Amino acid sequence: MAKLNFPSDFVWGTATASYQIEGAYQEDGRGLSIWDTFSHTPGKVVNNDNGDVACDSYHRYEEDVALLKKLGVKAYRFSIAWPRIFPQGTGEVNEKGLDYYRRVVDALLAAGIEPAVTLYHWDLPQALQDKGGWANRDSIDAFVKYAEVIFKEFNGKIKQWITFNETWCVSFLSNYIGAHAPGNKDLQLAVTVAHNCMVAHGEAVKKFRALGIEGQIGTTHNLYWYEPLTTKPEDVEAARRSRAYYNEWFMEPTLKGTYPQFMVDWYRSKGAEVPIQDGDMETISQPIDFIGVNFYSGGYTRYKKDEGLFDSEDVQVGFDKTFMDWNVYPDGLYKVLSWVKDEYGDIPIYITENGACYEDELAEGNRVHDALRADYYKKHFIQLHRLIESGVQLKGYFAWSLLDNFEWAEGYKKRFGIVYTNYETLERHPKDSYYFIQKVIADDGLEV
Ligand code: GCO
Fold first, then answer.
1. Nearest ligand 1 atom, CA 416
2. For position 434, what pLDDT does the model report?
3. Which of 26, 78, 213, 373 is deepest in the core (most CB within 10 A)?
């Protein structure tokens, strides 16, 4: 047995998102978001589940904070629901909506937990979607106004800011694949939305600097690691496209101010152009203080003519799978963050999400023996240690998720929590993985 020690200033945390946990979807003047519309449209979400009640964190946030405190985390990542603040996306601030986040932030600070806030975790006000959503550049101005209100309100209290969560999901998953709200299937729309969201990120960073807000600001991209199945050039190229779809397309504009040309050409060959306006690339690549990375999976890819968008297909090579059917690929985490360092230098990195979905059962004494999830965490923590040792500027890690919650198009059946949510009673029960993480934090490391 050896002990892997983590630096004492390493930030351990957990993460959630507003629409996935809050519920209270019509309370205190909250406007509707694209996720209310989408989840209330029959056939869009498994079992036609929706976030009307979710974990009811709008009323039970004190219990959530108590769970965080007992867990021993330094930080908690959550998101603010834009339609609580501006029910119509723009206009007058809804003070009652803001009050909810005042209560949450104060409760966290009183418990000695640093709030890490995501400004956009997918709940776009429906009123803005009605005018074209992220494809309309007016949404950029609306976002910056919303961000400004939050920056000013919480200056000095919230010290870690994340503008966008997973711009790939906001753009391609939601507007090309169509699996998430608003559910479009149009490549040009996806490319446009990705671009406009990145401009909105950059404009918000400019506003943050201009206002002199305390703390650090960055954005979160969801990265995957794909290896070519063979060394054949066509497989190598196919894997390169699969990676760039998630990784370079977002990382390169954010951190270098350019798009990867081979992907610009590829999208052009499919009829989609990036709608770059003067000054956009400079705006997008505003210096940021850290990059947030959400990592879940990856795998092996090979060339296959006319398959999907990239002439490529994923190949099953015997990985263990989670209940989402995602490969368990801890080494992929090591590889992708090593690539970030090689490609983009020593920017501080936070893993803003990582975690696993498994089928859980409530056992005697309200315990959940989720050995597979605890093992998933352990395997990834070993890689965190390896990354830190290798000189990657990895500053913190947020487990997804504090609680089982509304898993978007998958509804409630897919559980990612380290705390079990009983959706009938809304009681919360820590799982074995919670106690595993609690011990790692208390010991500043783990035995392997
Ligand atoms: C994400 C989302 C989470 C998901 C998680 C599991 O950023 O993808 O933030 O909301 O629940 O990724 O799919």
1. 6
2. 99
3. 373
pLDDT digits over 375-388, tens only? 999 999 999 999 99
Those residues with Cβ within 8 angstroms of residue 185's Cβ, 6 or more apart along the chain or in another chain: 175, 176, 177, 178
1: exposed, middle or buried (C-beta count within 10 Å: 0-12, 13-18, 19+)?
exposed
Q: Band of the pLDDT at 1, cuts 50, 70, 90?
A: confident
Q: What does the pLDDT average to over 216-230?
A: 98
Residue 404 Cα, ligand 1 centroid: separation in angstroms? 11
Q: What percent of the chain has pLDDT over 70?
A: 100
pLDDT tier for residue 116 given thresholds of 50, 70 and 90: very high
- 8 Å CB contact between 286 and 205: yes
Copy the structure tokens of residue 379: 């395997």
- Can you spell out the DSSP letters for 29-50? GPPPBHHHHHHTSTTSSGGG--
Quick check: is 353 catalytic?
yes
Mean pLDDT for all residues in the chain: 98
For a pocket test of ligand 1, which of 294, 354, 421 has the largest count of ligand atoms closer than 8 A to its C-beta? 294
Domain extent at residue 89:
3-447
Task: State the distance from the centre of ligand 1 to the C-alpha of 18, rounded, in angstroms.
Answer: 12
* CA gap 53, 18 in Å, rounded: 11
- Three-state SS for 215-276 is CEEEEEEEEEEEEECCCCHHHHHHHHHHHHHHCHHHHHHHHHCCCCHHHHHHHHHCCCCCCC
The CATH number of the domain where 90 resides is what? 3.20.20.80
Is 166 annotated in the active site? yes
User: For residue 29, which phi and psi values (nearest 5 degrees)?
Assistant: 85, 10
- What average pLDDT does the segment 220-242 reach? 98
Out of 227, 252, 353, 410, pick the active-site residue: 353
Total of domains in the chain: 1
Distance (angstroms) between ligand 1 centre and the Cα of 300 equals: 22
Please state the ipTM of this predicted complex: 0.90
Question: What are the CA-CA distances from residue 340 to residues 181, 230, 287, 390 (Å)?
Answer: 29, 23, 16, 13
Closest ligand 1 atom number to CA of residue 400 = 5
Question: With bands split at pLDDT 50, 70 and 90, how would you rate the model's confidence at 27?
Answer: very high
What number is the average pLDDT over the span 5-24?
Answer: 98
Ligand 1 atom 8: the closest Cα is on which residue?
Answer: 166
Q: Which of 146, 174, 157, 169 is nearest to 214 (CA)?
A: 157
